Amino acid sequence: MPSEKAFLEIEGKGKNEKLPCLFNPSELALKRVNGWSADSMPGKGVPTLSFTGAQSGQIAVRLFFDTTAEGKPVSDYTNKILKLMEVNPDLAGSDDKSNNVRPPWVVFHWGALYTFKAVISALELTFVYFSSTGMPLRARLDLLLTQYDQEMAFGPQNPTSGTPRPHRVHRVQPGETLDRIAAMHYGDSTKWRAIASANGVEDPLALRPGGLLSIPRLD
Question: Would you write out the chain's pLDDT as a tens digit for each of its 219 residues?
């Protein structure tokens, strides 16, 4: 698996946020279900199925958090994920008057892997270790991510199909600039602003060698 730390990309108004994971998961479980139906008839054999449509995919991921070395409550991290199940009226398209509000979507990133846009449909948090004063220091957090739109997980199956490129992570080399990195990944140096926006880069000429940049998909 990739050595880079995993993180959650969180939908935001104008700019998405990143929530790093303290420890990478040991596995990711993807589930897809298609709907099929048939009318059984007395005295007849096995009926022919009719396709009734696809259901949203789901990905289960278990995250671990440990703040024993920091001496602060692990809930400082887990509370941020709990909050992702609350409605956010600041999201684009939200309207309090019509009750058109929802929690944000998220994308789980791990090196070159990324999930589809998903909502956290289920969450189970377990504190597994405490200090002598009762402060929670270790936690296990199980997330069920349910597909939000038609975008597929883990990148396009056929890289020559013309579908958008997956999020990737680029390690900055000495002397590199954003326009050179954009030319490398997009074939177009003028797309450097997409990388700058995704990573909060204010000075495109002052990149830190060895640093990691998220290379966003282009719509």
Answer: 445 788 999 998 778 889 888 888 888 888 888 888 888 888 888 888 888 888 888 999 999 999 999 989 999 999 999 999 999 888 877 777 777 888 999 999 888 788 889 999 999 999 999 999 999 999 999 999 999 887 766 654 333 333 334 456 787 888 888 888 888 888 888 888 888 887 778 777 778 887 778 788 776
- Helix/strand/coil (H, E, C) string of the chain? CCCCCCEEEECCCCCCEEEECCECCCCEEEECCEEEECCCCCCCCCCCCEEEEECCCEEEEEEEEECCCCCCCCHHHHHHHHHHHCCCCCCCCCEHHHCECCCCCEEEEECCEECCCEEEEEEEEEEEEECCCCCEEEEEEEEEEEECCCCCCCCCCCCCCCCCCCCEEEECCCCCCHHHHHHHHHCCHHHHHHHHHHHCCCCCCCCCCCCEEEECCCC
Considering the four listed CATH numbers 3.40.630.10, 3.30.1300.10, 3.10.350.10, 3.40.50.2300, the one that applies to the domain covering 155-219 is 3.10.350.10
What are the domain boundaries of the chain? 1-34+53-153, 155-219
Topology of domain 1-34+53-153 in CATH is Elongation Factor Tu (Ef-tu); domain 3 (2.40.30)
